[in-house]
């Protein structure tokens, strides 16, 4: 494979990563933001470290890191907003990680909601408050996925513009 062929392959792989980042952001426990950033940096290396420019590369990196922070903190913040304790939020995160390997996205949502409900009911003996915490946590996890998808999609669209211009 000549150098031109390798460069084209790297560009194709970069866009595969960028698209994978958007898809990954919709899947719980998949670091879509980091996959998107890998695509940005692969494209940058393939372009001879000229495209995107330094300022745009820094901005895309910040968007990617913000998206990653939303991914990491989204469920825990939602649990806290819903009235769950820090302990409950941490335990729900562990349950989500385990269920990722066993059940997939739906199992993660149901498992986290169930965990939040059971632990909060045990702590407070308040079914209504426990249900609220579980519902808000689940809604927050879904909203976090939407925000991540929008942010990783913005990275993809920006990189399409870089490639076309």
What does the model show?
By secondary structure, the protein is mainly α. It has one domain. It contains six helices and no strands. The chain has helices at 3-25, 32-46, 54-81, 86-102, 105-124, 127-164. Helix 2 runs antiparallel to helix 3, helix 3 (54-81) crosses helix 4 (86-102) and helix 4 packs antiparallel against helix 5.
Query: What spatial form do the alpha-carbon principal axes imply?
Result: elongated
> Largest sheet at a glance?
none
CA radius of gyration is 19 Å
- Secondary structure class reads mainly alpha
Helix content: over 70%
Estimate the strand proportion: under 5%
Which stretches are poorly predicted, pLDDT < 50 over at least 5 residues? none
Question: How many distinct domains?
Answer: 1
Number of helices: 6
Distance between the termini: 27 Å
Q: Give the overall average pLDDT.
A: 90
- The count of strands amounts to 0
Order of helices and strands: HHHHHH
Keywords: Membrane, Transmembrane, Transmembrane helix
Protein name: DUF456 domain-containing protein
InterPro entries: DUF456
Pfam family, one: DUF456
